[in-house]
Structure formats: C-alpha cells, structure tokens
Amino acid sequence: MKHVPNLLSLARLVLAPFVFVLLIEREYRTVLVLFAIAGLTDFLDGLAARRFGSASRMGAALDPLADKVLLSGTFLTLALTGAIETWVAVVVLGRDVLILAAAGVLYFTKSRRSFSPSTWGKISTAVQIVFVLVIVGQVGGAVFIALKWATVALAVVSAADYARTASST
Predict the structure, then answer these.
(1) What Rg, from alpha-carbon coordinates, does the chain have?
(2) pTM, whole model, 2 decimals?
(3) Burial of 97 (0-12, 13-18, 19+ CB in 10 A)
(4) How many CB atoms lie within 10 A of CB 110?
(5) pLDDT value at residue 99
(6) Distance between CA 169 and CA 47 in Å, rounded?
(7) Where in the chain are the domains?
(8) For the chain, what is the mean pLDDT?
(9) DSSP secondary structure, 25-94, as one string
C-alpha cells in the first residue's frame, strides 16, 4: 500500500499526453472522463499518503510534477486550439513558472529543500481542474465566466502567496 500514492501520481503523468491529443482532436467526452479520473487521482494520492503513512520524497516531487504537466499542458492545449483565451493560459502557466522558479531558487540557495503546497495553491489547482471539466463538458454562460475569472484570480493569489513564502525563508 505504501506505493499507491506514487502510482496514482504516475497514472496522472501517463494520462497527460492522451488528454492533450484528445483535446486537439476535440474529443471532449473522452477528455471529460480522463480529466475527471486525473482529478480524482490528485485527491486520492494525498489521501492515501496520509492514511497509509506512505509519504515519500519521491511522492513529494512526483505529485506536483504530475499536476504541473497535466494542468499546464491542458491550459496550453486549450489556448492553442482556441477553447480559451491565450491570456488565461498565460496567467496559469506564469503561476506555474513562478512556482518552479521559486522552488529552484530555494533548492539551490537555501538550506530548506522542500517547497510545500500552500492552501491557496491547492484551491487554485482544484478550481483549475473544475474549470477544465466545465470547458470539456461544454458548459457555457455564467458558470464558465465565473470559473474563468476564479481560475485567473486564484492563480494570481496563489502565485503571490508562493512568492511571499519563498521570500520569507
């Protein structure tokens, strides 16, 4: 059971290229299922790590990597196919670049080697997942608009929170 969280994160990484290809082909029904599964693995890997006491250094790196690959690639693909405005993808990808840069700086310049996810980061990731599900579920109108702006706002807030955390260590 101790490897379950890492296997769930790995499953998310394996699903990512399929999601990207299916988004390009606009096979949104299949993407909806795969993305829902990927979102569920994101929730379950953390739950399993805590429940079974199987948190690991590998898992601490693999989980956020899987999130970044899946979500960044999805937002990039959605922008390239015109499903979302490019600026929305730039904000989300910019947040991820900032987080990766801050983690890299901390890793190489400070004695602290871990960069734990913040509450704002977790909320931002959850809203990004829901926003993608709304897009591929082809839900429009007020729900789409509200989630688009929530995604952008939370990306900015979580980026600022990560920057604050990185600068205070």
Answers:
(1) 16
(2) 0.87
(3) middle
(4) 11
(5) 77
(6) 28
(7) 4-167
(8) 87
(9) TT-HHHHHHHHHHHHHHHHHHHHHHHHTT---HHHHHHHHHHHHHHHHHHHHHHHHTTSS-HHHHHHHHH
On the CB side of 147, CA atoms within 13 Å amount to: 19
Residues 62-75 have pLDDT tens digits of 888 898 899 999 99
pLDDT in tens, 69-119: 999 999 999 999 999 999 999 999 999 888 777 777 766 776 655 667 789
Residue with tokens 């490019």: 86
pLDDT at 57 over 90: no
State both tokens at 19: 């999601």
CATH of 4-167, one of 2.60.120.10, 1.10.3720.10, 1.10.600.10, 1.20.120.1760: 1.20.120.1760
CA distances from 118 to 51, 62, 110, 141, 154 (A): 20, 17, 19, 31, 12
User: What pLDDT is recorded for position 86?
Assistant: 97
- Could you tell me if 132 and 37 are in contact, meaning their C-beta atoms sit under 8 angstroms apart? no
Task: State the pLDDT at residue 110.
Answer: 65
Exposed/middle/buried for 122, CB within 10 Å: 0-12, 13-18, 19+?
Answer: middle
- Show the tokens assigned to 42: 């994101």
User: Considering only CA atoms, which of 125, 160, 128 is closest in space to residue 46?
Assistant: 125
